[in-house]
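B., you asked whether I could sanity-check this one before it goes into the benchmark set. Here's the sequence:
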Amino acid sequence: MSFFQAPPPTRYDLNFTLFGFSIRVHPLFWIIAILFGTSTGTIPLLLIWVIAVFVSILIHELGHSLAMRLYGVDSYIVLHGFGGLAIPTFSRRGRGDLSPAQQVFISFAGPLAGFLLAGLILAVVAVFGGLISTGWLLGFIPVPNAFLPGGGSLINGAIRLFLWVNVFWGLINLVPVFPLDGGQIARHILSSADPWNGMRNSLWVSVIAGALMAVAGLVLMGSIYIALLFGILAFQSYQMLRGSGGRLY
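And here's what the prediction gave me:
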């Protein structure tokens, strides 16, 4: 799925090391982040948005990499135009030796890291006497919001953006659609339950869930981006099914 594969290195990449992990940021990452942040309205909020996206996606991928390290798998991180990837490089025990439960934990560790960051932000807001409320995504998924009296528009804007990126995107990433984390989790669970048909079944789940999310994105969220994203992912999963003749092991 080239849509979510790591792009080749360029001379304009930002390279650094954090917690022993090599991290590469492709220039397209910044361009896409800026494009999606133009609706923030002001240059300072746009800058905060880019920082929130960078920090949040980096923490998400660090969650995956730290979980891999827990099981003896080394990795490096690439942030690109459509998010990020934690890519395994070497296993002291063999990547194939990981149990389905360990694979599920590695996939879930990314969104979990984002939820923990959101929880830390809410805790800080509460300590400083801020106001915490709950909004509702699609009418039934709780998404926290917070306001710090006296914090000013920029601080409260940063709080709102960090919570939005880590909670909303974290929940979206858990939808069982390939190649999102939710799709990987579904694959590991279904393949463990049925080694012969698990992969094929997980792709059918991806097709159906992706189609439903595309409709929900357009009708309920009013988001063309969500509709296009999940429509493309659902179609890719369907192509994988057709390309394999419906048999995947």
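One thing to flag: The CA atoms of residues 128 and 148 lie 8 Å apart. Otherwise nothing jumped out at me.
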